[in-house]
Write a structure and sequence with these properties.
It is built from one helix and 13 strands; from the N terminus they run ββαβββββββββββ. The chain is an all-beta fold. Strands 1-2-3-10-5-8 form a six-stranded antiparallel β-sheet. A four-stranded antiparallel β-sheet has the order 4-11-12-13, with no helix packed on it. Strand 12 and strand 13 form a beta hairpin.
């Protein structure tokens, strides 16, 4: 059944795409906000198989995130400590160096969650486990007025690093 308005989409209509790297990072991710025309918030749904996580442990210095556990259970690594999470839990992750975070599926069932983030640019993201820092900055606009972004990742001993460098 189609929705009654282009800014409405049902969970069963989402297009989940594989995401990950190596043995540790594996997920299915549905980007939702772009297709609905959102401008100030980014949001999507993530499904983690048992024993997996989607992204490296990281902390945003500018953007705030919120997660809502839709199904399953797992572990939230937050500021170096581990906390159990389960369906129905809201998780607030304000920006800053005291908000390093990562959601891991430590159960034997899929873990599904909604991820919501502000979309402020420029942004700085630190990856404490691998010693990397990522920068995102506007460099102009394309022909349709959409911002063009410069994305760069630096490691302590490397002038430019790849996203997955040091994360295995």
């Amino acid at each position: 059944m189609s929705q009654s308005h282009p800014t409405i989409r049902n969970l069963d209509q989402l297009d989940f795409k594989p995401w990950g790297h190596g043995d540790k990072y594996k997920a299915r991710h549905a980007q939702v906000s772009i297709g609905l025309g959102a401008r100030k918030l980014g949001y999507g749904v993530v499904v983690l198989p048992p024993g997996k996580t989607a992204w490296p442990y990281h902390q945003h210095l500018i953007n705030e995130e919120m997660f809502f556990i839709l199904e399953g259970q797992g572990t939230l690594r937050l500021n170096g400590e581990e906390h159990p999470v389960r369906a129905g839990d809201f998780i607030a992750v304000p920006p800053g160096r005291q908000s390093g975070h990562q959601i891991l599926n430590t159960s034997d069932q899929d873990l599904k969650y909604l991820a919501v983030s502000t979309k402020e640019i420029p942004e700085v993201v630190e990856y404490p486990d691998s010693g990397k820092t990522a920068f995102v900055s506007p460099v102009g606009e394309d022909a349709k007025g959409k911002p063009e972004l410069l994305r760069a990742i630096y490691a302590q001993d490397t002038p430019q690093a790849g996203y997955w460098d040091g994360e295995d």
